[in-house]
């Protein structure tokens, strides 16, 4: 019975993370930010607009807020389902987003 509860919890957290990350990916594509390249997330969090390939301050601000929300939800998920399970969920989400958007978000070649 306890396994079913944790599986349901993992699914719930996965959906929440996927919703946030899908929006982050959409905004990153809109801003032309290669979010998965080394150091780029930190630069966005530090309000460095030079990582953008376009000038859209409003979208950049929303991207930054989305990233902060990702880390908030990630921390809550890790507390609920564990760090390893949370990382597995995030890896799957990133892989799915990369399939949809190709290499526009950067990352490993």
Characterization of the model:
This protein is an all-alpha fold. The protein has one domain. The protein contains 4 helices and no strands. It has helices at residues 2-31, 40-45, 57-81, 83-101. The chain is globular, with a radius of gyration of 15 Å. The chain starts with a helix and ends in an 8-residue tail after the last helix.
Brief rundown of the structure:
The protein is mainly alpha-helical.
Mean pLDDT: 88
The count of helical stretches stands at 4
Question: What shape does the CA trace take?
Answer: globular
Please provide the count of β strands: 0
Computed CA radius of gyration, to the nearest angstrom? 15 Å
In angstroms, what separates the terminal alpha carbons? 43 Å
Q: Fraction of residues in helices?
A: over 70%
Instruction: Return the domain count.
Output: 1
Decide which structural class fits the backbone: mainly alpha
Beta-sheet strand percentage?
A: under 5%
Order of helices and strands: HHHH
Are there runs of 5+ residues with pLDDT below 50, and where? 1-5
Mind summarizing the main beta sheet?
A: none
Name the features.
mainly alpha, globular, disordered N terminus, 109 residues
Write the layout of secondary structure elements.
Layout: H1 2-31, H2 40-45, H3 57-81, H4 83-101
Helix pairs in contact: 1-3, 1-4, 3-4
């Amino acid at each position: 019975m306890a396994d079913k509860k944790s599986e349901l919890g993992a699914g719930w957290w996965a959906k929440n993370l996927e919703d946030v990350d899908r929006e982050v990916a959409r905004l990153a594509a809109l801003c032309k930010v290669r979010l998965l390249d080394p150091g780029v997330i930190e630069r966005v969090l530090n309000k460095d607009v030079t990582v953008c390939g376009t000038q859209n301050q409003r979208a950049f601000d929303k991207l930054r807020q989305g990233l902060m929300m990702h880390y908030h939800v990630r921390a809550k998920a890790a507390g609920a389902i564990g760090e390893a399970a949370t990382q597995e969920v995030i890896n799957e989400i990133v892989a799915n987003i990369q399939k949809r958007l190709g290499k526009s978000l950067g990352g490993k070649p």
